[in-house]
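TL;DR need structure tokens for one chain.
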Amino acid sequence: MVESMRYVLDLVVPGGLVWFAALILLRPGVLPDSALPVLWVFPSAVWGIGILLGWYFNHTRVVFAILILALAEQSLQRFGLNNQMTGGPAGIVLGAVALLLPLNLVGFSLVRERGLFTGRGLMRLALILSQVLLVAFICRPSQHDLANLLQYRLFDLSLWAWTPLPLPSLVAFAAGLVLLMIRFFLQRDPIERGFVWALVAAFTGLQVGPAGWDTGLFLAAAGLVLAVSVIETSYRLAYHDELTGLWGRRALREDLMKLGSQYALAMVDIDYFKRINDRHGHAVGDQILRMVASTLERVSGGGTAYRYGGEEFTLVFAGQTAADVMPHLETLRKAVEAACFVLRGPDRPREKPDKPKSKSGPQNAVQVTVSIGVADRNEQRRRPEQVITAADRALYRAKNAGRNRVKL
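>> reply
TL;DR here they are.
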């Protein structure tokens, strides 16, 4: 149940909250007339700030996605469209926007980050320009049949009464949402979450236009979601360790300042880690760091795990003494020792076969253990630095006593 709630919160915050706020505040008649000047500049501000943030932090996927949203908003505004599938060039432009928008958002979520003014970056800009030219080509009277495909509804039944969007657009939005959701749950990345909610906000804007809502503001909200995802990613890089996913040293330093007068702190070090790196390579070393980090993350007793640096980690237990957490640390030590790390052999397939072959001969495995030193805050150790120093000394005692043990 707790893990399910974590997944829901990871998905909803903050992109879902931005979308929900837009759904409440952008309803016609909700905001007072005094807010109209802010709404007029809101899209332009989002486009400018979002593109600047994406460029500055080298998230070019976000730059291109926001550029697509800005072009869609400007196209709809220029033709005075409000999601009514009218005929002529206006209806063609609206059908093209409703189809190309989800395709572009999904496409730019899948590509790798490249520089904005590199060869590939310029190719992506050219791709966006080519879509503008394509829509202009479809608007020509001689392309009437091709334009009709953009507004294809399969059956003229009441089944489509709930939406102004044609079948190609609905398929593109539905398939795009499924794909982006899968990518997010596989990677749990803020940018991927941003693309999910940007797609939802764009669909909402195109869907509610006939009711008098401003589609352009919803497209701007989609851009805002992407801009916020860039800020969140930068925050994670500053406070999280990229390799292990744990909180980093800066987060530890700030969290220690927020704790009360009682807490215990444990320093955890992987035994003989340099020897493992020298013998098996840094790729294996990185895998072992991630394995140990995942075990530390599940420590009992309410502890929070941090990557302190190198092969060293920190566990913080708020409101507890060193004696209180000793049983939890001993359980943790045994869990790491029991999780034997088996190296991938040269003949081992990358994907698990349907009928795995029986194991023959000895397996190449690495035995991983940790040494742990623990201390708590008391009258002699009031500052966090003093507690860390005391836990470090206890860690060295654990190493000198033979490693793979916990010492006070």
